[in-house]
From TrEMBL:
GO BP annotations, alphabetical order: chaperone-mediated protein complex assembly; protein folding
Protein name: Probable prefoldin subunit 6
Cellular compartments per GO CC: cytoplasm; prefoldin complex
Classification via Pfam families: Prefoldin_2
Organism of provenance: Mesorhabditis spiculigera
Subunit structure: Heterohexamer of two PFD-alpha type and four PFD-beta type subunits.
Similarity comment text for this entry: Belongs to the prefoldin subunit beta family.
Coiled-coil positions: 91-125
Length: 128
C-alpha cells in the first residue's frame, strides 16, 4: 500500500515540478518584457524632452521606414505622449502578470514541500 502511495506522490511531484518550471519561464519572459518597456519609456521620455525644447515654428521630421516625413510639432508631441501612456499601461500589465506569477509560484512551492514531506513520511513508516 505504501509503495503505491509513494509512486502516486512521485508522479504528482513530477507533474507539479513541470508546472513550477513553466512558471519560472513565464517569469523570465515578464522580466524581459518589462526591461524592453523600460528602455522604450526612457527613449520616448528623451524624445518628449527634446520636443518640449523646440519653438512652435520648428520643423519636426519623423522617420517612417527609410523616409523622413514632416510632422506638425503639436502632433509629434501628442504622439509621444500617447506612446508614453501606452508604455506605462503595458508596464503595469506586465508587473501585474509578474505579481500573479510570483503568487502562483509561492503556492506551488508550498505544494511541492507538502508532497516531499508526505513522501518522507511514507518512506519512514516503511522503515519501521
Amino acid at each position: 500500500m505504501s509503495q503505491q502511495a509513494l509512486e502516486g506522490l512521485r508522479m504528482q511531484f513530477e507533474k507539479e515540478i513541470g508546472v513550477f518550471k513553466q512558471l519560472e519561464k513565464d517569469r523570465e519572459k515578464y522580466i524581459e518584457n518589462r526591461q524592453k518597456l523600460e528602455g522604450q519609456f526612457t527613449e520616448n521620455t528623451m524624445v518628449k524632452q527634446e520636443l518640449d525644447l523646440l519653438e512652435e515654428d520648428s520643423k519636426v521630421f519623423k522617420l517612417i521606414g527609410a523616409v523622413l516625413v514632416k510632422v506638425d510639432l503639436t502632433e509629434a508631441r501628442s504622439q509621444v505622449e500617447k506612446r508614453l501612456e501606452y508604455i506605462q499601461g503595458e508596464t503595469k500589465r506586465v508587473e501585474d502578470q509578474m505579481n500573479d506569477s510570483n503568487d502562483k509560484k509561492k503556492v506551488m512551492e508550498q505544494k511541492l514541500t507538502r508532497i516531499q514531506e508526505d513522501m518522507q513520511k511514507i518512506l519512514q513508516s516503511g522503515k519501521k
